[in-house]
Amino acid sequence: MLGGINNGLFLSSFGGFFAVGILALILKWAFARGKSVVERTPKTGGEDDYGALVAVAYPSNHIAGEILRLKLEQAHIKATLTQTTDGPRIFVFARDEKIARAILQS
Q1: pTM of the model
Q2: Of 4, 28, 67, 94, which has the fewest CB atoms closer than 10 Å, so is most exposed?
Q3: Contact at 8 Å (CB) between 83 and 44?
């Protein structure tokens, strides 16, 4: 006992503050902008928001789009079916654009 204070109680309460501080630092790191480990909710973009991918087909719904995507997959062309602000689109890499358009027209 130091000056009438229970040292064990003092140190255990100080340990609680230390634990809360560590948790605050972990949460700050986890939710920091640009380097978060928590997945963000996906947002729908336009046709120009998909980087190196080029839209090659404009199906009316996802069922028709999946059929076209499978047709490209059978020809060993990587294709992505996604929902854009203008509706469903099938995207391929720019190097495969001509081949994909020819396969989809046949």
Answers
A1: 0.60
A2: 4
A3: yes
Q: Where are the beta strands (DSSP E) in the chain?
A: 53-57, 80-84, 87-93
pLDDT at residue 106 in the model: 85
Alpha-carbon distance of 61 to 83, in angstroms, equals 9
- Contact between 90 and 59 (Cβ < 8 Å): yes
What percentage of the chain reaches a pLDDT higher than 70?
89
Domains of the chain in sequence order: 1-39 (no CATH), 47-105 (3.30.70.1530)
- Residue 4 backbone phi and psi in degrees, to 5: 85, 10
Residue type, 76: H
Residues paired with residue 87 on neighbouring β-strands, in sequence order: 84
User: Is 90 within 8 Å of 79 (Cβ atoms)?
Assistant: yes
